[in-house]
């Protein structure tokens, strides 16, 4: 049966393509975050182990929302590691980096997913697809917040000292 939701076939295909990249980035970031949860070591173990679990669980739940939106637009959702690697802007991690390097990679990953969501938002917005735009807005908010929470773990407190010097 033909889909008649007020979005042309051509636009639905473009949106599904953009969402497929979002799904791939989200899945690769999920896998990387879960891997780091299992393998993190060092003095920040408990903090990172817990934070990574919260983030990979949130990512896992988001995968279904993204895939189901692709399906609602009448297109198949990608579902293989091979396809995700082809579509994703995030590189897989093959080793076990230091905790600091894990944080850096996850900041970069969270920011990459936010950029992918922002690009997909433009496609959805141009097609007047509010449900997809809403989903992507929510995803951007989550990924930007996660990137910030990870990024602050890399700070040494120097910026607070610099702020105090500037006030003298």
From TrEMBL:
A GO molecular-function annotation: ferric iron binding
Xref: Pfam families: Ferritin
Keywords: DNA-binding
Keyword DNA-binding: yes
PROSITE patterns to which the protein is assigned, alphabetical: DPS_2
Boundaries of every Ferritin/DPS domain copy: 17-156
Full protein name: Starvation-inducible DNA-binding protein
Protein's organism: Sulfuritortus calidifontis
């Amino acid at each position: 049966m033909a889909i008649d939701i007020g979005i042309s076939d051509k636009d639905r295909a473009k949106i599904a393509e953009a969402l497929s990249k979002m799904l791939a980035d989200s899945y690769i970031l999920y896998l990387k975050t879960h891997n780091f949860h299992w393998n993190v070591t060092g003095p920040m173990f408990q903090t990172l182990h817990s934070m990574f679990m919260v983030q990979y669980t949130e990512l896992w739940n988001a995968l279904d929302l993204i895939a189901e939106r692709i399906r609602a637009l009448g297109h198949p959702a990608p579902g293989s590691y091979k396809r995700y690697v082809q579509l994703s802007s995030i590189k897989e991690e093959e080793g076990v980096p230091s905790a600091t390097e894990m944080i850096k990679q996850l900041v970069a990953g969270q920011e990459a997913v936010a950029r992918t969501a922002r690009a997909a938002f433009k496609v959805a917005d141009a097609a007047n697809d509010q449900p997809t735009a809403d989903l992507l807005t929510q995803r951007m908010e989550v990924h930007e917040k996660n990137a910030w929470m990870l990024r602050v773990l890399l700070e040494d407190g120097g910026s607070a000292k610099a702020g105090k010097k500037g006030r003298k």
